[in-house]
Design brief:
There is one protein chain. By secondary structure, this protein is α+β, with helices and mostly antiparallel strands. The protein is built from three helices and seven strands; from the N terminus they run ββββαβββαα. Strands 1, 2, 3, 4, 5, 6 and 7 form a seven-stranded mixed beta sheet that branches. The longest helix is centred in the last third of the chain and has 17 residues, at 125-141.
Length: 143
């Protein structure tokens, strides 16, 4: 089985009323999730996560938290045959200015959503599990 590694950011913004909002992206395949992508040669996981966030959403200013680092793992079938075991490592990141968000041409859309809306919009259970883990970590840290 082939292995694949990607890195991403779970972007968080506190609105004027103090409510947490999460930035989700809709990929060309139609599914909703968090921004992520593959590393370029010599790139660190954090560098990859920051670059992918900027490329997909035009968010260049993000404050990444050191902890927790969240992971999702799943297996998918390639169109050409064969299975791929995918691991995606996510960093939580605070975004002060959500107005800078613009979706890349590789995406269908993106949206800042409160946790309950995001949970409903996320396509896969793993995404909902990541959202729940982020919510718990932020509540514990008082963020």
């Amino acid at each position: 089985m082939q292995h694949d590694q990607s890195y991403g950011v779970i972007p968080i913004h506190r609105d004027a009323h103090g409510r947490r909002r999460y930035l989700l992206v809709q990929h060309k395949a139609g599914h909703w999730g968090f921004p992520k992508g593959h590393p370029e040669p010599g790139e660190t996981p954090v560098d990859t996560a920051r670059r992918e966030l900027a490329e997909e959403t035009a968010v260049h200013r993000v404050r990444l938290l050191d902890q927790p680092v969240l992971e999702e793992q799943y297996i998918f079938h390639k169109r050409t045959g064969g299975k791929v075991q995918k691991t995606v490592t996510y960093f939580l990141g605070h975004v002060d200015d959500p107005a800078t968000t613009a979706c890349a041409k590789e995406l269908h859309g993106c949206a800042w959503l409160e946790a309950n809306e995001a949970r409903d919009r996320l396509t896969f259970d793993e995404g909902r599990r990541l959202l729940d883990a982020a919510e718990q970590a932020l509540a514990t840290a008082g963020c």
